Amino acid sequence: MNTYSSRPVVLCLSGHDPSGGAGLQADIEALLAQGCHAAPAVTALTVQDSVNVQDFRVLDRAWVLAQAHAVIADLPVAAVKLGMLGSVEMVDTVLEIMQALPGVPLVCDPVLRAGGGGALGKDEVGYAMRERLLPLATIATPNLPEARILAELPNGSADECAEKLLPYVQHLLITGGHGDEAEVHNRLYSRDGSRHSFSCQRLPGSYHGSGCTLASTLAGRLALGEHLASAVESALAYTWRTLRDAEQLGHGQFIPRRLPLDFCS
């Protein structure tokens, strides 16, 4: 499937989480597990732990552009994964970066809330992503609370949010991990009307970095040349395993185990 002579490169435009549970570290670990190379460009710095986010600072636009263009000039980028952007200006920055990568798959994880509920950007950032970035994306991967923000439907169902968002994006994966049913239902919607539902057992506890893990894994599967529906299924299955084996390293949420402990042996 891979048309590149070496591991495919995935450019990750995401925030840094010092706890290592989410953000760029999640991207790097998940992509390593797919056999890909992560090229991490920092969009924002956060003050957070496994409990919640306390503060964040979006990097200067010029710094983010410089990071991305250094990667693009040197490495054959096979896919792009978007995580935390944090500001409307950063949305415009990503638009400029993507002009240099025509035809490259773009996976957009609209990070608007931390797992503990803290805001990682105002809702206006989500609206800017909807209007400007989703039309460029191959797929967006919001959870249901994020989909409701993007669709401006505070109590909308996954189907209702998808109907509102599909005019903006080609494919939409709305994850169901924030519910309380015995099974998690993850729903893939496509603009051509096709739908797929992927169910898995709900695991106990809450997890820090599950959305980052899913989106970066999906970007890796697309970079490897896997077709979209199959890539979604692969990414969901891998993410579930990382949550099944997650560890409560701190005082808050469980952190996914994205790499085996004997990875370097």
Walk me through this protein's architecture.
The chain contains eight helices and nine strands. By secondary structure, the chain is of the alpha/beta class. The strands form two sheets. A six-stranded mixed β-sheet has the order 3-2-1-4-5-6. α3 packs parallel to α4 and α4 packs across α5. The longest helix is centred in the C-terminal third of the chain and has 17 residues. The chain is globular. The model has no long low-confidence stretch (mean pLDDT 91).
Briefly summarize what is shown:
It contains 8 helices and 9 strands.
> Number of DSSP strands?
9
Estimate percent helicity: 25-40%
Rg is: 17 Å
Q: Sheet with the most strands?
A: 6 strands, mixed
Helices and strands, in order, run as EHEEHEHEHEHHEEEHH
Q: What oligomeric state best describes the polypeptide chains here?
A: single chain
Provide the structure class.
Answer: alpha/beta
Q: Ranges with pLDDT <50 over ≥5 residues?
A: none
Q: What strand order characterises the main sheet? A: 3-2-1-4-5-6
Beta-strand portion reads 15-25%
- By DSSP (H or I, 4+ residues per run), the number of helices equals 8
Tell the overall outline: globular
Q: Return the average pLDDT rounded to an integer.
A: 91
